[in-house]
TrEMBL record:
<keyword id="KW-0732">Signal</keyword>
<feature type="domain" description="CUB">
    <location>
        <begin position="264"/>
        <end position="435"/>
    </location>
</feature>
<dbReference type="Pfam" id="PF26080">
    <property type="entry name" value="CUB_animal"/>
</dbReference>
<feature type="signal peptide">
    <location>
        <begin position="1"/>
        <end position="21"/>
    </location>
</feature>
<dbReference type="InterPro" id="IPR058698">
    <property type="entry name" value="CUB_metazoa"/>
</dbReference>
<protein>
    <recommendedName>
        <fullName>CUB domain-containing protein</fullName>
    </recommendedName>
</protein>
Length: 436
């Protein structure tokens, strides 16, 4: 009897222990599944940004999918640029990913089977609309139907954050390429009083500009997006104009912090070629007497030192086809001795180029006659570029001061830039350069 009761008791104990073990296993399984679910969800979830189409948020956008089995490249790798057959700049992506990004395929990327994906954002310029760009090499276009006279502005945000999967790397600069840029001209005092283009959020000084700036560019410095995510605000502001012509196409390119293409700090413009053309904003080879020089300009223009060169940068006025001037930075003041600069002549020194000027450190003329000693100066103004005062001859001004950097400054208006009253009709400058 005793043995039977003991056996029954032991069986009950074993059943209870088995029940608890099964419950623990179930809980462990649920916990494991929950953690796995969180991991999967975390790895595939994309941050919501308002401009993306709904189909953008597919879980395999930045992952491998069954369609990619057997390939040796991912669907999308940030900061892999390409050029389409139409000379547009895009990113390399799988064709399906390009579609989900809202882009269009144009040509192929070399060697890896991906397409060159061209991405475009177009504003309606509605007061309630603000587009957001998070993707490298994105074109920002003005409304296809034009801009009405009642429209007061148009804005776009460039969001920089290394945690975004479409970036996934620290960004330190953004380059704006003005493929097309036309808004209202400045007034007769060189002030952008009707339309403006402004940038907010960059750590370097960005001037307000207006007029015609197709072919120009800007570099915007930002803190590393890995430690300090940044929102850059790009905005056009429109005033009242009886005949407004407003259109733009701006390529927005993000430059990682470890890229060899970074511009030197505080360089609004950066030229890397051995030769080329540098222009002040709104300079154009067009006939007319309207003011094109812009007020309140204060920025540096930098040039890459070419390996193997003689470390000399030479600049000369562009050849123009109209009646305009290639160098026109505020007609110089009469000198202390009473010698006024003639129309079309150069001027130098801080005393003569007080408010509006171009700084070429240690600038000197080449090709001077033997009887004329080369003189090195920094400030240049007037209606011709030369290191000699009141010079009417076309020449080149060179500098050996490296790193190569020019400084362009203009005052807040033209009201008192010369003795005797206001000056109007200045154009700015267009210079060819040779890095030799």
């Amino acid at each position: 009897m005793f043995n039977i009761n003991l056996l029954s008791f032991m069986l009950v104990i074993l059943l209870v222990q088995s029940s608890y073990a099964n419950e623990d296993d179930a809980e462990d399984s649920l916990e494991s599944e929950s953690q796995e679910s969180l991991i999967i969800e975390s790895s595939t979830r994309l941050p919501v940004t308002p401009w993306r189409p709904p189909y953008f948020y597919g879980p395999t956008l930045f992952q491998y999918s069954p369609a990619f089995i057997g390939r040796t490249y991912p669907a999308f790798v940030p900061f892999t640029s390409c050029t389409s057959p139409n000379k547009e700049t895009g990113i390399c992506a799988d064709s399906g990913t390009c579609t989900r990004l809202g882009g269009r395929a144009s040509g192929a990327c070399p060697s890896d089977g991906r397409v060159c994906c061209i991405n475009v954002v177009t504003n309606t310029c509605d007061d309630t609309e603000r587009k957001v760009v998070t993707l490298d090499n994105t074109y920002w276009l003005s409304p296809t139907m034009g801009i009405g006279s009642s429209t007061t502005g148009c804005a776009l945000t460039v969001k920089l954050d290394a945690k975004l999967p479409e970036q996934n790397k620290a960004v330190c600069q953004v380059r704006l390429n003005f493929v097309l840029f036309t808004i209202a001209q400045p007034n007769t005092e060189s002030v952008c009083s009707t339309d403006t283009f402004e940038v907010v959020g960059a750590s370097n000084k960005i001037p307000t500009i207006c007029g015609d700036n197709g072919g120009q560019h800007m570099y915007l410095n930002v803190p590393s997006s890995a430690t300090s995510p940044t929102d850059l605000q790009l905005s056009f502001n429109f005033g009242t104009d009886s005949n407004p012509v407003r259109a733009w196409n701006i390529l927005i390119s993000m430059i990682p912090c470890d890229s060899p293409n970074l511009a030197p700090l505080d360089c609004l413009q950066y030229f890397t070629g051995r030769s080329g053309t540098v222009r002040s904003f709104n300079w154009r080879d067009v006939a007319g007497t309207e003011t094109r020089q812009l007020a309140n300009q204060d920025y540096s223009i930098c040039f890459k030192t070419i390996p193997g060169s003689r470390r000399t940068l030479c600049l000369a006025p562009c050849t123009v086809t109209s009646a305009t001037l290639a160098f026109s930075i505020s007609m110089a003041r009469p000198e202390a001795g009473g010698l006024a600069a003639a129309s079309g002549s150069s001027q130098i020194r801080a005393t003569n180029c007080e408010k509006d000027y171009l700084v070429i450190p240690g600038g000197y003329n080449i090709g001077n006659p033997p009887t004329v000693d080369n003189m090195a100066y920094d400030r240049f103004c007037g209606e011709n570029l030369s290191a000699l005062p009141r010079d009417l001859q076309r020449t080149s001004v060179c500098t050996t001061a490296t790193p190569f950097r020019l400084l362009y400054r203009t005052s807040d208006d033209e009201m008192d830039d010369i003795v005797g009253g206001a000056e109007r009709g200045n154009l700015g400058f267009c210079l060819t350069f040779r890095n030799q």
